[in-house]
Amino acid sequence: MTIVDTPERRQLRELTRAFVAREVLPYLDDWERAGEVPRHLHATAAKIGLLGVGFPESVGGSGGDLLDTIIVTEEIIRSGGSSGLVAALFTHGIALPHMVAAGGNRTGGPLGGRLGAVPAPGDDDLVDRYVRPTLAGTMIGALAITEPDGGSDVAGIRTTARRDGDHYVVNGSKTYITSGVRADFVTTAVCTDFPGSGELTLLVIEKGTPGLTVGRRLEKLGWHCSDTAELSFVDVRVPVANRIGAEDTGFLAIMQHFAAERISLATQAYAIAQRCVELAVRWCRDRSTFGRPLVSRQLVRHRLAGMHTRAEAARAYVHDVAARVAAGEPVVTEVAMAKNVAVAACAEVVDQALQLHGGFGYLRDAEVERHYRDARILGIGGGTTEIMNEIIAKGMGL
């Protein structure tokens, strides 16, 4: 038994596997082609307690911590779900934590209490208006940081918010917004000084607010069942009551919640690798060439052994770092290393798995083909591999 393998977490794994088998696998191919996950899936996941895992019960969550969210993510993928499904169904994992930390978790807890900020007036109201309904599966939230002319340069955000009495007037644009098409609200990073100043504030902006336009649905290499949008803001009036925390504290809030997002992406990476090993082993046992099963050939067995080793090593390292994050340790460098280790392992394993599947692996009918496409975003989202290397280099004193 380990910190990630306890009786309670085994039950959580079983619950997740049953959910995937019953509510996901019969429909996933259709969702991939439709380009989105149906809204009712959020409510279904909420009813059995999966949607709120990792969020305190005090704000409508199911309790648990970062390690519990890892269990859910890992089991969804290993049970035949997809990384795109995780992105679509659990977008609130990046849309809500800032609100929880600022207003709904004054006494601390699994995901909140780390910003060290005194809750601002209205923060508890945001929890009631947005956090609780989202965790109940009746609302969908998104996080809008990335802009068309800048990716990982969060301090360079150019979308502005000018104070006008009891409102902010927002102008700018965002892109690559996960769940941006379906979202009922968007936690939006805006600059409250001159564009690119780094003085950032987080505002909750509701869909339907005049001046907010959801642009075209972006078509992607992978994550097909996760809708992605461009957003445009033209003189959008947002109540000051929709501000998360104090003005100009957004940059710190974003940085402090990056660790959980990066651990989630690392988890998706090693879980895809593990699933692809399982798929490849199954294929090589069933597939015969020249009168012999593929797995009977030493070259194939050794390749499978190497794939399994890389996947399990990545899993062990991510678990170790995640446990330190959950304990509140400042492990920014280690999180960056965990993400890069898992992404690199995933890239190699999924490529080898598809190769072992031969021509079938190249077809949309093959599950390994979907994982091959989905895996490519993991070294980009949440901070690119190159940005992670910069963080690691700084941690080395370079």
How many domains in all?
A: 3
- Rounded to an integer in angstroms, the radius of gyration calculated over CA atoms is 21 Å
CATH topology group of the largest domain = Butyryl-CoA Dehydrogenase, subunit A, domain 3
**How large is the count of helical segments?**
13
CATH superfamily of the largest domain: Butyryl-CoA Dehydrogenase, subunit A, domain 3
- Determine the mean pLDDT: 92
**Name of the CATH architecture of the largest domain:** Up-down Bundle
| Element pattern in H and E | HHHHHHHHEEEEEEEEHEEHHHH
What is the CATH first-level class name of the largest domain? Mainly Alpha
Number of strands: 10
Q: Report the span from N to C terminus.
A: 39 Å
Structural class: alpha+beta
What portion of residues belong to β-strands? 5-15%
The dominant shape is: globular
Low-confidence stretches: 104-121
Give a brief description:
The protein has helices at 7-24, 28-34, 39-47, 66-78, 83-89, 92-95, 97-104, 123-135, 250-286, 298-326, 332-357, 367-375, 385-395, and strands at 141-144, 160-164, 167-178, 185-191, 200-206, 212-217, 228-239, 243-244, 288-289, 292-293.
